[in-house]
């Protein structure tokens, strides 16, 4: 689906107006063609793109490590166990235009890189049994104003049937399974609109069960942030100890039998840890071990960012702009788009995920979406008790800017990061046009767009400053 960029013109500033966002540098024709992968899922039908044929068109060093060949049978006369019958379409010669266009949606069961022994895993079986959902009925556009001048892509309205189902199921999980919040917080939970958030960010999720993976993790992460760091009893004092113990709900403690029961009991001692443990239990059932380990690593990054911000609050440190941006590269949304393949029912192999070019794409996506949060939550945070660091506040203090000019400067920084993200993703798609890479890049781009749309439409939580 084409994604026309939207950037509303800014009014003239009373101070020094920000320079218009610079256009990305010209890129080769192949990279320009590869930019189509950022358009998000466009439909089904990628099973004919065999990795065997695509490998001939991939660039050197792009192909993931091949799985080991199965050992020969010990007894040649023995009857081999029956294997699932996989009907594949005839191999075709790689077509650069098809490759650069990337997978056009779901249905990548034949693209599995897993060894035959792993085909029974939840992630791979979800692929082979996938059936496309019916086309959703058109939904009325939600209310909400985009930040003027912010570079973004409009997205279709999320499927209202899925939104409602995710909303109901996540609330039952929060109330009945993990006892996440007291009754007086129910309105805030409903106002978060987690169903709309997850359906909008993961348009290629094959089932609601897959959407619920992301929904539980998102709610659990916010519970830790609110209850340990911010609005609902959070404090920088002692945060490191609380985060470390909560992290063991994601990355389990391996200790002696004498002390294991006390740790197990601690996982149910407060709502954030109960939420982390339950959400992670659901996640690992549908993720591969590599995907689960990747997520644990990104959650450690997130917790490190929490600790840096808390340390600055305790010492009264006012960060420079570059220091703030460094902190926000860790304290940001990165764990959410990094699981886009698990939620989509497939896997980006570990060696492809670890490529420096892919890591740059994911980091830029996380950085840009986090500044979106800074911009939309600006008035909400200014109205809250205490000092809240966000990019416009840091720019105003360190750049000696008015509040309005600092806010406009933050929009500029966001737009630069978005252009860098899209250019980096297009270059990687051209250099490594494997189906799993292309689909993952499209999934991250869809998450970036869905995240902005959720912020734009969540008028319960956010309102824009009166700078226009």
- How many strands, what sense, and barrel or not for the largest sheet? none
Structural class: mainly alpha
Oligomeric status: single chain
Q: What is the mean predicted local confidence, pLDDT?
A: 79
Helix/strand order, N-terminal first: HHHHHHHHHHHHHHHHHHHH
First-to-last CA distance: 32 Å
Please, how many helices? Answer: 20
Helix content: 40-55%
SSE topology:
Layout: H1 29-34, H2 51-54, H3 96-101, H4 122-128, H5 160-177, H6 186-191, H7 194-201, H8 208-229, H9 239-247, H10 260-266, H11 271-286, H12 289-315, H13 321-330, H14 340-344, H15 350-353, H16 356-376, H17 378-382, H18 391-399, H19 403-431, H20 435-457
Model description:
The protein is an all-alpha fold and 468 residues long. The chain is 52% helix and 0% strand. It has 20 helices and no strands. It has helices spanning 29-34, 51-54, 96-101, 122-128, 160-177, 186-191, 194-201, 208-229, 239-247, 260-266, 271-286, 289-315, 321-330, 340-344, 350-353, 356-376, 378-382, 391-399, 403-431, 435-457. Helix 5 crosses helix 8, helix 8 (208-229) runs antiparallel to helix 11 (271-286) and helix 19 runs antiparallel to helix 20. The longest helix is centred in the last third of the chain and has 29 residues, at 403-431. It is globular, with a radius of gyration of 23 Å. The protein starts with 28 loop residues before the first helix and ends in an 11-residue tail after the last helix. The model is unreliable at 8-37, 40-58 and 70-133 (pLDDT under 50).
């Amino acid at each position: 689906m084409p994604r026309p960029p939207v950037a509303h013109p800014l009014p003239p500033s009373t101070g020094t107006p920000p320079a218009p966002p610079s256009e990305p540098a010209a890129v080769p024709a192949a990279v320009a063609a590869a930019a189509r992968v950022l358009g998000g899922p466009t439909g089904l039908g990628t099973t004919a793109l065999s990795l065997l044929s695509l490998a001939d068109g991939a660039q050197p060093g792009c192909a993931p490590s091949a799985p080991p060949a199965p050992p020969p049978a010990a007894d040649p006369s023995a009857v081999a166990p029956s294997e699932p019958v996989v009907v594949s379409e005839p191999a075709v010669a790689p077509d650069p235009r098809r490759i650069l266009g990337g997978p056009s949606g779901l249905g990548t069961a034949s693209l599995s890189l897993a060894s035959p022994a792993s085909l029974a895993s939840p992630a791979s079986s979800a692929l082979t049994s996938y059936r496309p959902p019916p086309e959703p009925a058109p939904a009325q556009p939600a209310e909400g104003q985009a930040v003027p001048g912010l570079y973004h892509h409009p997205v279709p309205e999320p499927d209202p049937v899925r939104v409602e189902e995710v909303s109901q199921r996540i609330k039952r999980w929060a109330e009945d399974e993990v006892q996440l919040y007291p009754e007086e917080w129910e309105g805030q939970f409903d106002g978060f609109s987690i169903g709309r958030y997850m359906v909008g960010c993961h348009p290629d999720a094959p089932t609601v069960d897959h959407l619920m993976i992301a929904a539980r993790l998102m709610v659990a992460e916010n519970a830790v942030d609110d209850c340990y760091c911010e609005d609902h009893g959070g404090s920088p004092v002692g945060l490191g100890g609380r985060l470390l113990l909560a992290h063991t709900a994601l990355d389990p403690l391996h200790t002696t039998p004498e002390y294991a029961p006390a740790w197990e009991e601690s996982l149910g001692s407060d709502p954030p840890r109960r939420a982390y443990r339950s959400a992670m239990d659901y996640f690992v059932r549908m993720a591969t071990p590599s995907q689960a380990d990747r997520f644990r690593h990104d959650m450690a990054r997130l917790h490190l960012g929490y600790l840096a911000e808390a340390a600055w609050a305790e010492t009264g440190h006012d960060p420079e702009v570059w220091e703030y941006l460094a902190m926000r590269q860790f304290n940001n949304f990165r764990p959410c788009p990094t699981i886009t393949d698990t939620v989509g029912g497939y896997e980006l192999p570990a060696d492809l995920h670890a490529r420096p070019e892919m890591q740059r794409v994911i980091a830029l996506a996380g950085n840009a979406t986090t500044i979106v949060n800074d911009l939309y939550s600006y008035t909400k945070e200014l109205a809250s008790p205490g000092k809240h660091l966000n990019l416009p506040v840091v720019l105003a203090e360190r750049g000696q800017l008015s509040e309005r000019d600092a806010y406009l400067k933050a929009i500029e920084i966001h737009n630069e990061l978005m252009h860098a993200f899209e250019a980096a993703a297009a270059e990687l798609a051209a250099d490594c046009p494997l189906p799993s890479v292309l689909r993952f890049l499209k999934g991250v781009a869809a998450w970036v767009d869905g995240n902005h749309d959720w912020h734009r439409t969540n008028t319960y939580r956010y309102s824009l400053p009166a700078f226009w």
